[in-house]
Amino acid sequence: MSKIFLVTPNEDANGLVKMIPHTVDLQVFTENELAKSDIRFDANDKVCILSETSLALVKSRLNDNSQIKAVELLKDKYEFRKILSKIYPNYFFQTVGIDEIQNLQVDKKCVIKPQKGFFGTAVLEIDKTTDMQKIKNQIESEVNKNSSLFPEEMLSSKSFLVEQFIEGEEYAVDMFYNDKGEAVIVNLYHHPMPKHPEYLQMLYYSSKKVFDEINAKSVHFFEELNNILQVKNIALHAEFRLKNNDYIPIEINPMRYGGMALGTMVYYGLNVNPYQTFANNEKPNWNTIWNKTENKEAVYAYMIAYNGKTADVRNKKPDIERFKKEFTQVLKSNVYPFENQLTFGTFVLKETEGNLRHILQLDFDDFFA
Questions:
Q1: Cα separation of 264 and 277, whole Å?
Q2: How far apart are alpha carbons 25 and 249 in whole angstroms?
Q3: How far is CA 225 from CA 68, 237, 256, 263, in A?
C-alpha cells in the first residue's frame, strides 16, 4: 500500500507548513526527524518537499532507482537539457566555469544561470554585445549574497549553463506521475513578468483561460518526458515558455508543487488538495471545476511578497494592512518574520485581470515604514 510523506525544513521560518491543507494519512517529517529515522521510501510511496533544502536527504532515502535517476537528471540543468535534446533537437546549450565567463562569446540572445540554482539567483540574459566581465561580477555578487541561504547542492557557484533564450510568455505546471506512470495535472499558472525584475517570482495566477491555453500541451509534454524518465509516483513543478505553438520547458523541480507553498493556491482557490489528489491517484476534472459559476470568470493568484530592493529591514517593517488593500480579495495570507528572509509573506488572492496588471507594477519598498 502506498503512503504519502511531506518533508519540511527544520525551521519553518516562513510558515510554509501551516499553508498545507489537511490531508488524510499525510505523514509530516522535518529534515532532522527524517535524518534520525531509519525510514526509506519505496517505489509506491509518494514524497513531497516544501524546500529544495530537503531534496538531497530525501533522495538518499529513495529505494526506487528510476526516481533517483530522475531527480539527478532534472536538478542538473546541463543533464536536463541533454535528455530533452531528444524532444528539442535544435535547442542550443553549453556549460562554462565561473572563470570562463569573462571570455564567453555568443552569437545570439542566451541565458546564463547556475547549473544548479534556486529562486532565480544569478539568472541573466546575455548577447553578443554583453560585457561578460560585468556579467561575471554580477553573478559572483548574487551567488555570494545567497550562498548563506542556499547550499552548494542547491546553488552551484562554479558551474553555469548557457542556453538559448526561450521566447514567449512564462507558465508553470504542478503535476505528478501516478502509480501507472500517467501524467496528472494538478495546477497550471501564468507567470507574468513584473515591472521590477528584482521581484521575478512575485506573482503566479490561474484561470479557465490559462487551462484552456496550456493543459493539452502540458499533458503531451509530460507524456513525452516519461518515455525518457520511466517514473511513477513522483510530483514535479515545471516552468515553460509559450510562443505561438512552441511550448518549451525552462526547468523542472522534482518532488514539490512549486516553491514557497505555491501549490496550495489550487486548494484555497479551487478546493483541490494537491496532496490528497496525489495520495489517492485522482485526476481532477478541470472542465467541471472551471465551469462552476464562481470559477468561470475568476482569476486566482499567488503573491510572494519581497522585502524590497532597498528597504532597511533592520529598522523598518512592512505595513501588512496597507499592502492587503492593493488586492480584490485575500483568500489566505501567511505573514512571517522577514529580517533574515528574502520575503515577508505569501498571499492567495481572488482577482480580476485588471487588478493583476496593477499588482505587477507594485514596488515592495513602498510598503516598508
A1: 12
A2: 33
A3: 16, 13, 17, 21
- For the chain, helix (H) and strand (E) counts, in that order, are 11, 15
Q: Of the candidates 254, 362, 354, 368, which has an alpha carbon nearest to the alpha carbon of residue 304?
A: 362
* Segment (H or E) for 20: none
Q: Which amino acid is at 327?
A: F
208-239 pLDDT tens trace: 999 999 999 999 999 999 999 999 999 999 99
**What is the Cα gyration radius of the chain?**
20
Pairing of strands 110-114, 343-351: unpaired
**What's the rounded Cα separation, in Å, for the pair 202 and 302?**
8
Supply 245's cell numbers: 505553438
Q: DSSP letters of 250-319?
A: EEEEET-SSSTTGGGHHHHHH---HHHHHHHT----HHHHHTSTTTTT-EEEEEEEE--SS--TTT--B-
Q: CA–CA separation, 165 vs 125, rounded Å?
A: 8
pLDDT above 90 for 114: no
Give the class (CATH, top level) of 88-164.
alpha beta
- pLDDT given at position 313: 87
Spans of all domains in the chain: 88-164, 168-367
Amino acid type, 254: P
Mean pLDDT of the chain: 92
> pLDDT tens digits for 300-325?
999 999 999 998 888 999 999 999 99
pLDDT in tens, 56-98: 999 999 999 999 999 999 988 888 889 999 889 988 888 888 8
State residue 141's pLDDT score.
83
The grid coordinates listed for 129 are 554585445
Tell whether the model's pLDDT for residue 14 goes beyond 90.
no
Q: Which three cell numbers stand for residue 71?
A: 531527480
Proportion of the chain in helix, strand, coil states, percent, rounded to 5: 35, 30, 40
pLDDT of residue 25: 93
Task: Evaluate if pTM is beyond 0.85.
Answer: yes
The whole-angstrom separation of Cα 178 and Cα 181 is 5
Superfamily of 168-367 according to CATH: ATP-grasp fold, B domain (3.30.470.20)
- 3-state SS class at 236: strand
